[in-house]
Amino acid sequence: MTTPTNPPRQLRLIIETDDFDEAVHFYRDVLGMPEQPAFATEGDDRVSILHAGTATIELASPAHVRAIDAIEGVPESQQPTLRIALEVDDTESAVASVAEHGTATLAPATRTPFQTINARVQGPAGWQVTFFQELETVQDRSARDGFTTDDRRPR
Fold this sequence. Notes:
By secondary structure, the protein is of the alpha+beta class. It is built from 4 helices and 6 strands; from the N terminus they run H-E-E-H-E-H-E-E-E-H. The chain has helices spanning 20-30, 62-72, 91-99, 138-142, and strands at residues 35-36, 49-50, 83-87, 105-111, 116-122, 128-134. It is globular. The model has no long low-confidence stretch (mean pLDDT 85).
């Protein structure tokens, strides 16, 4: 594998929402994601760029997504094709915090086989948000069976 000479420096996920105020309130005020200055013109042209810490892209096959949904206990009728996953220090506290603001819990805090505690809530604009709390470092997980990169995974 070759190393790109100009890899991306930031991941920005754009969520189009009809209820801009609700979405900003949820991500900025409820989840506490800091807002940075962003350019928009006037009137209905609104944008909010919120810092989410480290960003990764998780590519998952349909079988893996179904496995995660089953582990988290999300019913088939509520499984989206896109969702946001946010690492938090304490999954149960994150769920309790958003529940205070009327956010529906889709799946309660559950310890996963990938050494996280996951829970899923219904965010605004149709997006689901998974909170996950890491229980081990990447180095610790790398020593466990089943943890490897895709190019080294047996087929």
